[in-house]
User: Fold this.
Amino acid sequence: MKKVYNFSPGPAMLPKAVMEKAQHELLNWDETGMSVMEVSHRGELFKKVAEQAEQDLRELMHIPDNYRVLFLQGGATSQFAMVPMNLLGKNNKADYVNSGNWAKKAIKEAEQYGDIHVAATINYDGVANIPDVSSWQLRDDAAYVHYTPNETVNGLEFHDVPDVGDVPLVADMSSTILSRPIDVSRFGLIYAGTQKNLGFAGLTIVIIREDLLQEPLSGTPSMFNYQKQAEQGSLLNTAPTFNWYVTGLVLQWIKQQGGLEEMGEHNHRKAQKLYDFIDGSEYYSNQVDPACRSWMNAVFLLKDESHNAEFLKQAADAGLLHLKGHRAVGGMRASIYNAMPESGVDALIDFMRGFEQSL
Ligand SMILES: *Cc1c(COP(=O)(O)O)cnc(C)c1O
Assistant:
């Protein structure tokens, strides 16, 4: 089999050990003579998988007891609507940070449901940085503040959790969840699609503080109702059982790696290596302030953009895949989630150095 490193932004590479275990158990799961895909989502067999996954997630993230964990469908994009539908409450106001491509989509969706105010905007025209929280125009009577801790497309990450006072903080952690330790108690709600750091596409994790399980906007579909989903243990309908199972395997793999402290060190080291190389090069550049460069998605430009196609072709020939930047921003992007080994980053740096020298 061809040796490749897959730098895809999502769906992204999975740890090999996870896929091997899933493969090994595919036809005879847990000595049942069946596949995990074939059993009832409400049966005793699957219940063990569901409960273990939640327990492992709670343990890894130190999720306090007054938070519920939901395993939903619809991706992070459904959360763009579910969050306002469930949390806007009576005064119908929420503040959003427009930090880039994904935040914009969250804002656009939320605007359908209430009075949405953009409290701060990140500008990507020059060197992008995060305006100090003291300059954010936050409203005391907002039902929540929404932000995107890691902007997957723009390669920008908030390395500190912003202090927004008593207003519940809502975070789209799709591309950074489980990449490092975080203090869950700082958040009212965290959501993430699983296809970057937690498994494959089709499952969405929501971690919600119990007091935010309230009556949603009238007309909210049951599937979109956090309260109902929490009451039913996320089993309002047939759950995406295989996704849930694979996410469980990913969580066990992270535990085996040493948990989030270890993941954080590993991810920081990988990202720093790549940024150090880019900063030391005349040919490659990164347009994000070093204080908020993403550990998960490193974006970079070639000095001569007319070399982009050749760069991508030679990279693919060398087994370095999916380095093309998002169509909205161009350039290159290396997504280096939890599952990307340090050897992948080393191989990328070697290739980039060689490409520059060959010009
Ligand atoms: C990938 C991504 C999304 C979109 O997720 P879907 O599961 O496709 O809806 C949303 N937000 C962020 C930050 C992402 O990285």
